Amino acid sequence: MIEFRQVHKHFGALHVLDDISLRVAAGEVVVICGPSGSGKSTLLRCINRLEQIDSGEIVVDGISVAGTRDIARLRAEVGMVFQRFNLYPHLSVLDNLTLAPTKVRGLPKAKAVAAAMELLGRVGIPEKAAAWPAQLSGGQQQRVAIARSLVNNPYFMLTDEATGNLDSVTSEEILAMFERLNDEGRTIIMVTHEDDVAAHAKRIVRLKDGMIQSDKLNEHRVSALARTKVHGAELQAAEEAAAAMGVAEVA
Ligand SMILES: Nc1ncnc2c1ncn2[C@@H]1O[C@H](COP(=O)(O)OP(=O)(O)O)[C@@H](O)[C@H]1O
Ligand SMILES: [Mg+2]
């Protein structure tokens, strides 16, 4: 469980988090939405102490975020995926995935490589291990970033506008991937300012001016998983039609 108890934070005179109390139970998917500048990213970044809070408390699975001396353990529990994929441009996909496990955790290279290849398989791009980030599409880069966030097998996933740079089909695929990660039991908090992304969540928390404006179950939830199945089927049908006509693709 992730719990905020009367959390306040300022940036100078700006009251960026204003008395935030919020509980996210194990296994939930919660979307935090709201206009630009409402404090969404700051709220997320406080969870793994990328930002410090002024008062109140944040507790992650029994660990007090402000109080813990073991920040590495806390962060290992919490995977993060950002809008800008934040891959190292000078490292191959494989090296992006093995850097932290080998350098920080001291895992033997062969083990880190095997784990990375398994993760690349799970995000659907095992053939891209040797590629450079710049050679990948935005959606593929985000898949690598998701694989990287899974390296520690975290219990929680935090995503900040993770589909903000992607076209709508690719965005659905990435959302479907988060849905699968949730099905595996991971608790997910997704930040977005896009209503169509929010529509996928079972629960929607709206922030405004650093305050929680509403916290509601989403009766009209649509499943990204179901929608990508449709897209996939359409794509396959289009490919088959093209093959039947003896052309490479149908415009
Ligand atoms: N490191 C910082 N220093 C000063 N102000 C910041 C910092 N980070 C964010 N802010 C300000 O805090 C407010 C909320 O930012 P943010 O949490 O990024 O909002 P959102 O993600 O909802 O767009 C904005 O006004 C932003 O300019
Ligand atoms: Mg933001």
Explained architecture:
The chain has 251 residues and is an alpha/beta fold. The protein has eight helices and ten strands. It has helices spanning 40-47, 71-77, 93-103, 109-122, 138-149, 168-183, 195-198, 224-245, and strands at residues 2-11, 14-24, 29-33, 55-60, 63-64, 78-81, 156-160, 187-192, 203-208, 211-217. α3 (93-103) crosses α4 (109-122), α4 (109-122) packs across α5 (138-149) and α6 (168-183) packs across α8.
* Helical/strand content category: alpha/beta
Mean pLDDT: 90
- How many helical stretches? 8
Terminal CA distance = 48 Å
Write down the CATH class: Alpha Beta
Supply Rg.
Answer: 19 Å
Query: Strand order of the main beta sheet, please?
Result: 6-7-8-3-9-10
Helical content, roughly?
Answer: 25-40%
Number of domains: 1
Number of E strands: 10
Summarize the structure.
By secondary structure, this protein is α/β, with parallel strands linked by helices. The chain has helices spanning 40-47, 71-77, 93-103, 109-122, 138-149, 168-183, 195-198, 224-245, and strands at 2-11, 14-24, 29-33, 55-60, 63-64, 78-81, 156-160, 187-192, 203-208, 211-217.
Keyphrases for this structure?
251 residues; alpha/beta; Rossmann fold; four-stranded antiparallel β-sheet; 8 helices; binds magnesium ion
SSE blueprint:
Layout: E1 2-11, E2 14-24, E3 29-33, H1 40-47, E4 55-60, E5 63-64, H2 71-77, E6 78-81, H3 93-103, H4 109-122, H5 138-149, E7 156-160, H6 168-183, E8 187-192, H7 195-198, E9 203-208, E10 211-217, H8 224-245
Parallel strand pairs: 3-8, 3-9, 6-7, 7-8
Antiparallel strand pairs: 1-2, 1-4, 4-5, 9-10
The structure holds adenosine-5'-diphosphate and magnesium ion.
Magnesium ion binds next to helix 1.
